[in-house]
């Protein structure tokens, strides 16, 4: 008989919350157990310091609390931590009310779009309303129950406001169920009114001995699977598009076996890169707007696309033009994603689905000429990548040459390094050119493409994978938006190597602006409104040193290679800044991406761009 059954323990709501989170365990691959939560990031204010702050202090030995420098940044780090763990472990984030809470909104959207778990615990106003309006409280003249935390509702997979301490008994299990559900995974927000945090309740002792957390496998419907097998069995020129679900479903081995058995080439989305080793004969590389010529050529010729764990966003599909005429089989744990583009939906875990589909197909193979053509294209693209990344002696290097220097700086870079990035030109270049043989060796936040994620995300990755060399690649625009967690990395002893590419502005959007007929305007420092001293002369190395990191500025690729050797040998975070060409990009690959162009303009360049836009749009798949 359970001795704890019927017994209670008197705790504040905040104490009960933290104790419950600290008690959650997941199984490890070797049969052991480890905490589900790696701890919490916290920036305290009047809305959480007394209640939740005291509770975190009491549990600090079993549930560590990490101080950060920006609420959005620490949430990005928490999300990256979960992504690096393939959603098997996660973190909590707590802030005060007001700006502390609303600083989390961008991160909540990022986690929602990317289907990544994070537990957000913003403080809230007094339920009693005794001190209304409390400092930082938003007042709504038409609804007295509203606080700024209501803004989290559309950005959360599950939202609750705890107005009685006993509500934790139902709210917490529901929150954990969402955070660990393959289909519903995403941000959970529990708004915590500051007076309720401090209220006590007699909680059942057994509540703090929760069962082992299980990550359930979504089993496919056999009729759906049979329909998918029938479609695939009729195809001569099939293509697999591997999305993030392959990685999160730990289905890399199943994908490889499926591709090899049936002779089907594989292309990878931003989220799915690393699902198949970069040098596998059937690996075509990146697909879509940031894709390789090999993947995009084969996608345009495919008669069937098997999308595994992909959201099929516009960068993957070329705004629904890239494989518009191909039949589609979409294997996904999430019905919302599986039903996109009117394909044959199969709701299934990636590993289980691929294994069952392979068994149903038996000895069926893609057309022999198709497989051979894919292998030829794959080999040619790898040779092109080698040539691009090998260039060392150029007057002003561009991103591809910098990527090559980073990969050359360690003999085991394809297996030990984890590159982290998020926005701008670098995602396109890295998607095409970065070589990884390890799932998780490519950590890109491109679902929300959030500038400022990079340094904070690198911190979260390093916390999750302390033995890896974490390389943060970031442009000057993103770095200037958010860099303060570099100081946190120094404080926590979580070494990052930050490679900062300075093109003196927002080079990516500057090129897009001109590609749609616009004049260079308000993106590069040279093209924006200036007064007084004019364009700022920023010493990024000096800035990084002021945050406690080691740093240096370099000019050439050989200088970068030497600096990277010093960075790898360093005992703390190290930033290397190099000037890069804002105009040059990798010309190979890519495809159309829909960016609407004005119908009316006084500028001839815009009118010409509109004409081209309408022509390209005619190839778009209709009635999505």
From TrEMBL:
Keyword Phosphoprotein on entry? no
| Positions of the Thiamine pyrophosphate enzyme N-terminal TPP-binding domain | 50-136
Species classification: Bacteria, Pseudomonadati, Pseudomonadota, Betaproteobacteria, Burkholderiales
Domain Thiamine pyrophosphate enzyme TPP-binding: where? 423-576
Gene Ontology terms: cellular component: acetolactate synthase complex
Task: List, alphabetically, the SUPFAM superfamilies matched.
Answer: DHS-like NAD/FAD-binding domain (SSF52467), Thiamin diphosphate-binding fold (THDP-binding) (SSF52518)
| PROSITE patterns linked | TPP_ENZYMES
This one is known as 3D-(3,5/4)-trihydroxycyclohexane-1,2-dione acylhydrolase (Decyclizing)
Source organism superkingdom: Bacteria
What's the source species for this entry?
A: Rugamonas rubra
Keywords attached to this Swiss-Prot or TrEMBL record, sorted alphabetically, are: Hydrolase, Thiamine pyrophosphate
Claim: Hydrolase is one of the keywords in the record:
yes
InterPro entries reported for this sequence: DHS-like_NAD/FAD-binding_dom (IPR029035), Myo_inos_IolD (IPR030817), THDP-binding (IPR029061), Thiamin_PyroP_enz_cen_dom (IPR012000), Thiamin_PyroP_enz_TPP-bd_dom (IPR012001), TPP-bd_CS (IPR000399), TPP_enz (IPR045229), TPP_enzyme_TPP-bd (IPR011766)
Query: Which family is annotated?
Result: Belongs to the TPP enzyme family.
**Pfam families given for it?**
TPP_enzyme_C (PF02775), TPP_enzyme_M (PF00205), TPP_enzyme_N (PF02776)
Q: Name one GO biological process term.
A: inositol catabolic process
What residues does the Thiamine pyrophosphate enzyme central domain cover?
Answer: 226-355
GO terms, molecular function: acetolactate synthase activity; flavin adenine dinucleotide binding; hydrolase activity, acting on acid carbon-carbon bonds, in ketonic substances; magnesium ion binding; thiamine pyrophosphate binding
